[in-house]
Design goal:
The chain is an alpha+beta fold. Helix content is 35%, strand content 23%.
Length: 136
C-alpha cells in the first residue's frame, strides 16, 4: 500500500476495507498499485470516498444472486472494482480489472471471497480478516 491513504477520520458512514489473504496478500492493493493512470486513480479514490462518506455507490452492477458487486468506471479500458457489501455499513474491496477481463475478474473475486469464507465459520469471523483500511 504505497499510494495516498483514502480513509481519513473515524466518522465513516460505511467502513471500506479490503481482504487480507492468509499469506498476507491484499488483492485489491496489488491491483490498484498496478494502475498507472493518475486520472483513473483519482476517480477510484473519489468513488470510494463517496461510498465511505455518503453511502453513494454510483454506476455498477449489484446482483441479488451473488455476493460480488461491481463498480464501473467509463474511463480508458473500462475499469472495474469488485467488492462485497456486508450489511449496511461495511464494504470489502476484493480486486479490480478492466472491461475486457470482466468475466475472469469476477470469477477471481468470487474465488477470493469464497476462500475467506471457507477459512471461517461465519461471515463475522471472515470480516475479522478484512480489517485493513484501504490505501491507494
Amino acid at each position: 500500500m504505497n499510494k495516498n491513504d483514502i480513509v481519513s477520520g473515524n466518522e465513516d458512514k460505511i467502513l471500506v476495507r479490503e481482504i487480507v489473504q492468509e499469506d498476507g496478500n491484499t488483492p485489491f492493493s496489488d491491483w490498484i498499485n498496478s494502475v498507472r493512470d493518475p486520472k483513473i486513480l483519482k476517480k477510484i479514490r473519489s468513488r470510494i470516498n463517496l461510498i465511505r462518506d455518503e453511502g453513494y455507490f454510483g454506476p455498477g452492477r449489484f446482483p441479488s444472486n451473488s455476493p460480488i458487486s461491481e463498480l464501473s468506471f467509463d474511463t480508458g479500458p473500462g475499469y472495474r472494482v469488485y467488492f462485497v457489501r456486508c450489511g449496511d455499513d461495511i464494504v470489502i474491496l476484493i480486486n479490480g480489472g478492466v472491461k475486457n477481463g470482466q468475466t475472469s475478474d469476477i470469477i477471481k473475486a468470487k474465488n477470493i471471497w469464497q476462500g475467506v469464507i471457507n477459512e471461517y465459520r461465519t461471515v463475522e469471523e471472515a470480516l475479522q480478516r478484512c480489517t485493513v483500511r484501504v490505501s491507494i
